[in-house]
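Example 9 (inverse folding). The structure is encoded as follows.
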């Protein structure tokens, strides 16, 4: 069977595009120093994810993927946090020591990051608090095309298994906070706004945020 030059060229272009799409690199994640001292108190909550017992494997994404949330505007359902200011959530400081985290008031609270334009998002990395082992409740990660989360809302992670926060029932597991943070696979979703939800932890009524990183690339 003979193929035309056009057919051969199209096949070659398709193969080149496929090869390019498979080229992936580890995310440029810089982890903070672990803060746990001594033996952490055990965390006993329902639906708890089993600890991996080793460092998290690298997360692969297309070349050029970066933290597009750095220094972007953060708003919250709690406009006057108990501790810290909302801009600390995207200031690039992940140490988790005093002065680098925000404490929101008790009850379900949201924080929303405006990426200023639509991006292809590959992963979201969240540090709530990592000075001690905690499991935060009602943790959700959502994206949308508008700040009110009405248009094209998609939920990427939800461990609220009884809908206590009113955003729907989720099947994801609760997890213990560590210096690695929680890495959420966004699977290349396209959006401008990122929203995180939480409702305290097994040790605190209020919710905390050290840093949120959003790894993506601007849409062309």
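The amino acid assigned to each position is listed next.
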């Amino acid at each position: 069977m003979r193929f035309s030059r056009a057919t051969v060229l199209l096949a070659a272009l398709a193969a080149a595009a496929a090869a390019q799409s498979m080229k992936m690199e580890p995310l440029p994640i810089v982890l903070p120093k672990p803060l746990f001292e001594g033996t952490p108190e055990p965390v006993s909550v329902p639906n708890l994810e089993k600890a991996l017992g080793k460092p998290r494997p690298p997360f692969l994404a297309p070349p050029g993927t970066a933290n597009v949330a750095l220094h972007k505007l953060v708003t919250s359902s709690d406009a006057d946090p108990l501790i810290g200011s909302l801009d600390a959530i995207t200031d690039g400081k992940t140490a988790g020591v005093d002065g680098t985290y925000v404490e929101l008031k008790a009850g379900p609270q949201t924080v929303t990051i405006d990426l200023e334009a639509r991006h292809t998002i590959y992963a979201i990395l969240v540090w709530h608090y990592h000075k001690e082992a905690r499991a935060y409740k009602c943790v959700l990660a959502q994206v949308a095309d508008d700040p009110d989360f009405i248009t094209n809302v998609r939920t990427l992670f939800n461990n609220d298994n009884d809908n206590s926060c009113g955003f729907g029932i989720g099947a994801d597991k609760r997890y213990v906070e560590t210096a690695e943070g929680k890495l959420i696979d966004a699977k290349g979703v396209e959006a401008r706004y990122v929203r995180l939800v939480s409702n305290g932890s097994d040790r605190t009524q209020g919710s905390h945020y050290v840093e949120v990183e959003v790894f993506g690339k601007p849409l062309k």
